[in-house]
Design a protein that fits this description.
By secondary structure, the chain is of the alpha/beta class. Strands 3-4-2-1-5-6 form a six-stranded parallel β-sheet, with helices on both faces. The radius of gyration is 19 Å and the shape is globular.
């Protein structure tokens, strides 16, 4: 059985930009540019299908290890894309949120992030969380530090409330493109009960059909959250008889 045909919250590891470019004998930054177009397409498709939260892994805390030229290009692309797209996001009802460690980011990038968040703060149609300079271990550590600074006991509920994605429910479906089968330090806490979908499609080629395939797979899953199938059937029966 499947509770929901369409997940409320989808999270995506957008992998394969560099390989997409290499296959075409293009510089890696060209793949990242095409990846921005794919993200725009995906956000629009998610909205059309009733998804209300989309969280994407835009830049991990480990990505600083990449060649300096690529990192610099990514930062420039990020700032330019924000400046160019924020008005469209605002008009489309998308609320943009940035999740991650902002220390060490350039003033230009920080300004673009703050302006994008401020311009779209009132939107409620789709929440787009861009995890930038983010790592799942960093998230858990910063939440524990925040709880300790507040003088609260280190409980699961208190930690959950201090996580960087506490403003949205945990992801129902976590998609990774590019053929890899690992989380890569993404949403380690929030993904505890997410359904996973792995695809060989490189992120720049991820289109509406690929999204629908992931959603179709999700719709066939039975999400038990530690219970048995019989318990779920019983809950559904009692709910239907009310």
């Amino acid at each position: 059985m499947a509770y929901d045909q369409v997940p409320h919250h989808i999270a995506i590891v957008m992998d394969g930009n560099g390989r997409w470019a290499n296959k075409r004998f293009l510089p890696r930054i060209a793949g990242h540019r095409q990846g921005v177009e794919s993200l725009k397409r995906c956000a629009k498709a998610c909205d059309a299908r009733g998804v209300r939260v989309l969280t994407v892994f835009a830049f991990s805390s480990e990505n600083w290890k990449r060649p300096t030229e690529e990192v610099s290009g990514l930062m420039d692309l990020f700032a330019m894309a924000l400046t160019r797209e924020v008005n469209q996001l605002k008009a489309a009802g998308v609320q943009l949120r940035f999740v991650g460690d902002r220390r060490g980011l350039s003033p230009r990038v920080l300004r673009s992030m703050e302006e994008g968040e401020a311009a779209t703060a009132g939107n409620t149609r789709l929440i787009l969380n861009a995890c930038f300079n983010y790592g799942g271990r960093w998230d858990i550590a910063q939440a524990a530090r925040k709880v300790a600074e507040q003088g609260l006991p280190l409980t699961e509920d208190n930690l959950n409330g201090a996580m960087s994605l506490a403003h949205v429910p945990d992801p129902d479906l976590l998609i990774r493109t590019g053929g890899e089968h690992r989380m890569s330090n993404f949403l380690l806490w929030q993904g505890a009960y997410s359904e996973f979908f792995f695809t060989d499609v490189l992120w720049p080629d991820f289109d509406e059909a690929a999204l629908d395939q992931a959603i179709s797979s999700f719709a066939q899953r039975e999400r038990r959250f530690g219970m048995t199938s019989d318990q779920l059937d019983g809950d559904a029966s009692s709910t239907g008889s009310r």
